[in-house]
Amino acid sequence: VVGVPGDMVELRSGLLYVNGRRVQEQYLRPQFNDGESHSPVEVSKGYYYVLGDHRNSSNDSRNWGEVPEKYIYGQAFFRFWPLSKSGFIH
User: Of the residues 14, 21, 69, 90, which has the maximum number of CB atoms within 10 A of its CB?
Assistant: First the structure.
C-alpha cells in the first residue's frame, strides 16, 4: 500500500511520489522497475493505492485502479524474504 485516502500518488519514470514528495523504495530492485510514468491519482475515500515490488510484471493499481478498503483484511505476521530477515513480525 503506497497511497491512503486523500493521498496524491504519481509515478515519474518509475520513481514514486506521494503528495509531491519522492518516496525511497529500498525494497524495489532497479532491475524490477519498469521506468513507466503514470499521471497523478488522488486516492478516493475508502480506497487504497497499491503497487507491487516487481513493477515490470506486477498487476496493481496502475492496471486495475484503487482497492476498496473492504477487500483489505488480515495481518502480516511472518516474513519469508529476504531469508536473512525471515521470521515473525512484531
Answer: 14
65 vs 31, 32, 38, 41, 79, CA distance in Å?
24, 21, 12, 10, 27
In which element (H, E) is residue 54 found?
none
Q: Specify whether the CB–CB gap between 44 and 66 falls below 8 A.
A: yes
Alpha helices in the chain (DSSP H): 61-64
How large is the C-alpha radius of gyration of the chain?
14
pLDDT tens, position by position, 25-51 = 998 999 999 999 999 999 999 999 999
Q: Is the dihedral of CA 63, 32, 68, 23 positive or negative?
A: negative
pLDDT at 24: 95
d(CA 90, CA 86): 12
